[in-house]
Amino acid sequence: MGGRGVDGTPIFDELRGLFDESHGRVDAPSRSGSGPRTEAENADRPPAKIVVTGGRGVGKTTFVTSVSDTDPVTVKAATDVGRVTLHRDLLLYLLGTAEPSQAAFAGALGAVVLVDPRRVEDAFAMITYFERSDVPFIVAVNMFDGELRHELDEYREALALHPDVPLTTCDARNPESAARTLQELVSYTMNIGGSDHSPPPEVPV
Ligand SMILES: Nc1nc2c(ncn2[C@@H]2O[C@H](COP(=O)(O)OP(=O)(O)O)[C@@H](O)[C@H]2O)c(=O)[nH]1
Ligand SMILES: [Mg+2]
Q1: Among 9, 82, 83, 161, who pairs with 64 as Cys (CB 3.0-4.6 Å)?
Q2: Does the beta carbon of 57 sit less than 6 angstroms from any atom of ligand 1?
Q3: What's the pTM value of the predicted model, to 2 decimals?
Q4: What pLDDT score was predicted for residue 44?
Q5: Which one, of 86, 82, 58, lies nearest residue 71 by Cα?
């Protein structure tokens, strides 16, 4: 079953706007000039990729399915590939996977680590993996019961999460909530200035 996607919702416009504003910061390659991209410029852009990860049964497939505008394709190793069409010529691919690997994360602008509030310990290994990698990530507690049982700070503590790493909640079944989570990740990656995560500065003309 495919998701209904988020095209036409305010959060979709916000997410798309972030990509338009990014001037090559969240998506390779760099671009000269400013202002919204033209369709021709969009056509030159490679697709963007975000990894959605976490322990088994945490809601990865649900998340990718709800926000995607196509039926996700399940490939090897229980990996789902979904797609959000930001512009006709700019695709955002979502890779839902429980298996951290170089191949999965190659070229990804960042990752969302989903946490099951009933089994936070399932996320430990993945968070450790990302802390040691160059891939920017945020953590989202998937609210299975529709609400949180504890304060977010308590989850941060339980996960021993660095204060700089954004921690949020989501409802993986809700396309707009999933899109909001993606927006938070993209926004975060754009705001990590001067770190190893930044692509090279654009060459002045
Ligand atoms: N109630 C509730 N169930 C969810 C939610 N997200 C996922 N599920 C259910 O949890 C199960 C595992 O989700 P799935 O997306 O397959 O997890 P994955 O193994 O991480 O891909 C499925 O039965 C989903 O329907 C949620 O936000 N709320
Ligand atoms: Mg799955």
Answers
A1: 82
A2: yes
A3: 0.85
A4: 66
A5: 82
